[in-house]
Fold:
Amino acid sequence: MKSQILRAFTLIAVSAMVFAIFSMILAPAPARAQAALQDEDCAKCHEQQPADVSAAGEAHQDVSCQECHEGHRPTSPNNIPECSNCHDGETHFELEGCLSCHTNPHTPLKISLGKDITKPCLTCHTEQNEKLQASKSKHTALFCSNCHDEHGKIPECLNCHKPHAETMTQADCGKCHQAHMPTVVEYTEATKNQDCGACHDKAEQLLAASTTKHQTKACVFCHKQKHKTLATCDSCHGTPHPEGILNKFPKCGDCHKIAHDLNNWPKAAPAPARKK
Structure:
């Protein structure tokens, strides 16, 4: 009887041991923690994109691949983000078709412009538009891309406009003209007479040949700061003559001719010789 009981306990113990062993064998292995992807991992397949970001990514250099591309296909079928996910809060970011200008999001400031573009430009470049509208000219009617066919490119005026004089260069244009307000001509006190003479050649030549004190004055001494500013004689000379003379000759030029050719009246022809 005892031997039967002992065999029964032994059988139960062996069965329990076998069950435990099979349970361990058949149990699934514990899941391993998945390692987080690094940008270096992405570059193993996607070589060009990280290289672009490194070379000209601008603010995108501070963003990891995974911050934009959440997941990977096929488990994440739409892992190309919308620009508006990050870029918002400004009028420019409300424009549609970002990639029409920013063709490569990995080099966002390498911008390709199409033809006849103005509206997208004005969402950033408001100051330039204010000038164009405040002083309308032929430039106002142009598309921004007519002059700026590449983003950030400032063209030379001489690409379209003939210089006032053969000696003038692009640097001379900016002394008087602003590209977005070209007809508002302003200049500094350092402007040389030869710059004015590029357009006003006759006045410059007369002034240079004058034998009066006016010959020593720069054009901008009388025509101060803004084009077409005309000084009056009394602003320098006060009232040099008695009231009676001024009443009879109210215009200074009646006696003194023009300011650029002061007092240079043609000499009277000699009287014909008398016949003997």
Observations:
- Residues 47-100 form one domain.
